[in-house]
Specification:
alpha/beta, ABC transporter transmembrane region fold, Rossmann fold, 4 domains, six-stranded mixed sheet, four-stranded antiparallel sheet, 14 strands, 10% strand
Length: 627
């Protein structure tokens, strides 16, 4: 990850279309490009080639020991000579000792192999998650506007886990199972063809039974996970909105919905467990059937064809063990297929184009003054529906520019273009005479401070929250910023003062107090351009007055952009831009716009009444307009 500075990024993704993401269970589907995804995964695994080569060697060794042990057991029985009723004691002792050594070695090799692959897979997951998270930091804001955050989180957490658990681990199990089957068949056909064929009788039944149960149980497991997700959503929603639920006496309704969902979860879970629980009993039946067939055939061969008793014992052992790897192979194919789909979803994000890099001749804008100019700017989010059309205005350093208009008119889009979260389709935006695309992003971020309608707080102490945009700030600077915006009084009332822990859902602070902390954070960042996006719309009148005082301190000497629906907050702006359907339809000061009796006049009249919209009764001094 490069040194991208995230400290100043506080602008919301407003003004862009929201599109629901894919289902969180999409990884259960088949991968669209299974071959290509598998190649990319193999390329990732090659980064740990030493571990994989060692694991392959250990798997082959483990398989050889697993296949060889039944053969050794048969040889032990062959030390008994039926003709003279004698036992070859030295050979018997040697074989028993060898079997003990082989069994211990097999356990040790298997444990070592699995330990190595688990460590490698966890290193791979760590690297993949780090790469995925770094990718998210550099994606265009448009990606987050058009993709579900829950689905993105599912890719980062669940789908990456699938790669570790279902591909890394299952691949080793699949390899060992296939090697065990091939090794066992080789030994069996070497010993006796007739008995080998009798053992193979179980193979088609194993695949048919496994396929039937896997198909049924997979559907119920998917339904179980979906209902579990709904349960989690209901619990989260009820906890977050408990006050509203109680206020409207909706406890019984929530309880009913929860009970119904919980019942569906119980039914799906029961069915899933019942079907998956049938597999082992049916496998035991097939194993016993195969064992009986081998026992009968080997008995006949021992009686009529002189088959050694040890060979018969060897085949009986193989018959008991043969169904297990077959069942694993059948089950693991479905698991790996699902994991490949998850891997494809991860690669889909990693392949997304990142934000446009800085131009080769981009400059650092040191000591920005805050002069802003929009020249014939047009923009659309989806390249089909125009959001802004031919926007032109100039904001001189230190002026206050207000953006007003109906919801969806394009006010926040103008701000998003100014902060270069999106690039214009046509026209240009200049900061201190320099086109935004000619300014390095890292430099541009330090030019803006944003205060949102909903204060954005992270889980940390109050001091760390205030210094979020300026980590090197001292405690004295933090306290000074809090005093300037009158946030120090509410902070000092807390048990631990500036060391008190807070979060976005913390209830120890009111909405207004949280907003004051956000403003204190903005004061400390000390950027030349200030953006206020409905910073006081969600608080009461008394708190709004306190916040307005804090904002007055914050706006001093800065170029300020105000997005407001409460028109009483923009009366003293140097320039008011009235936005309608993506165009600037009116511009001027509060008094001059009222005198025009246009859209702004109608907006003020609808909010405050016609008597407050009369320019003669307002008494605001005229101001020079920034055209």
């Amino acid at each position: 990850m490069d040194g991208t500075d995230m400290a100043q990024i506080e602008i919301p993704r407003l003004g862009a279309p929201k599109v629901g993401g894919a289902s969180r269970f999409a990884s259960h589907a088949k991968a669209k490009d299974m071959k290509g995804t598998l190649k990319r995964l193999l390329h990732l695994f090659l980064g740990y080639r030493r571990t994989w080569i060692a694991t392959l060697f250990l798997s082959i060794l483990s398989t050889a020991l697993t296949v060889g042990i039944p053969y050794g057991v048969g040889q032990v029985f062959n030390t008994f000579h039926e003709a003279d009723h004698q036992v070859d004691i030295p050979r018997f002792q040697t074989l028993i000792a060898a079997l003990l050594v082989f069994s211990a070695a097999n356990a040790l090799v298997t444990m070592l192999s699995h330990s190595m692959i688990l460590k490698a897979s966890q290193h791979l997951v760590k690297a993949l998650r780090t790469r995925f998270f770094a990718k998210l930091q550099h994606l265009d804001l448009a990606f987050f506007d058009t993709n579900s955050s829950g689905d993105t989180m599912s890719r980062l957490v669940n789908d990456v886990d699938l790669i570790s658990q279902s591909i890394a681990t299952s691949a080793v199990q699949l390899l060992e199972s296939i090697l065990t089957i091939l090794g066992s068949l080789s030994v069996m056909f070497f010993l006796n063809i007739v008995l080998s064929v009798s053992v193979l009788l179980c193979v088609p039944f194993v695949f048919l039974v496994t396929r039937f149960i896997a198909k049924k149980s997979r559907a119920f497991f998917l339904e179980q996970q979906q209902n579990l997700g709904k349960i989690n959503a209901l619990v989260e929603e009820s906890i977050q909105n408990l006050q509203t639920i109680k206020a409207f006496s909706k406890e019984a309704d929530f309880d009913t919905v929860f009970t119904q969902t919980n019942e569906r979860l119980r039914v799906a879970g029961t069915s899933a467990q019942l079907y998956s629980g049938l597999l082992m009993p049916l496998m035991n039946v097939l194993n016993n059937f195969t064992f009986a067939v081998v026992a009968i055939v080997s008995g006949v061969l021992c009686t009529n064809s002189g088959l050694l008793i040890g060979t018969a014992i060897t085949f009986l052992t193989y018959s008991k063990r043969f169904a297990s790897p077959l069942n694993q192979v059948a089950g693991l194919f479905n698991t790996i297929q699902s994991a490949l789909a998850g891997a494809e979803r991860v690669f889909e994000i990693l392949d997304k184009s990142e934000q446009i890099p800085d131009e080769p001749d981009a400059v650092d804008l040191a000591n920005a003054r805050g002069n802003v100019e929009f020249k014939h700017v047009s923009f659309s989010y989806d390249k089909h529906k125009q959001v802004l059309t031919d926007i032109n205005f100039t904001a001189k350093a230190g002026q206050v520019i207000a953006l007003v208009g109906e919801t969806g008119s394009g006010k926040t889009t103008i701000v998003n273009l100014l902060t270069r979260f999106y690039d214009v389709d046509s026209g240009e935006i200049l900061l201190d005479g320099v086109t935004l695309t000619h300014i390095k992003r890292s430099s541009l971020k330090h030019c803006f401070t944003v205060v949102l309608q909903e204060p954005c707080l992270f889980t940390s102490t109050i001091a760390e929250t205030i210094r979020y945009a300026k980590p090197e700030a001292s405690d004295a600077q933090v306290m000074q910023a809090a005093r300037l915006v009158r946030a120090d009084q509410c902070i000092e009332k807390l048990p631990n003062g500036y060391r008190s822990m807070i979060s976005a859902n913390n209830q120890s602070l009111s909405q207004g107090e949280k907003q004051l902390l956000a403003i204190a954070r903005a004061v400390l960042s000390d950027s030349p351009i200030l953006i206020l996006d409905e910073a006081t719309s969600s608080v009461d009148t008394k708190t709004e007055k306190e916040i307005q005082k804090a904002l007055t301190t914050l706006m001093a000497g800065r170029t300020s952009f105000l997005i407001a629906h409460r028109l009483s907050t923009v009366k003293d702006a140097d320039l008011i831009l009235v936005i309608s359907e993506g165009r600037i339809c009116e511009r001027g000061t509060h008094s001059s716009l009222l005198a025009q009796r246009g859209l702004y006049y109608d907006m003020v009249s609808s909010q405050n009444g016609p008597e407050d919209a009369e320019p003669l009764g307002v008494g605001f001094p005229g101001k020079s307009l920034a055209q």
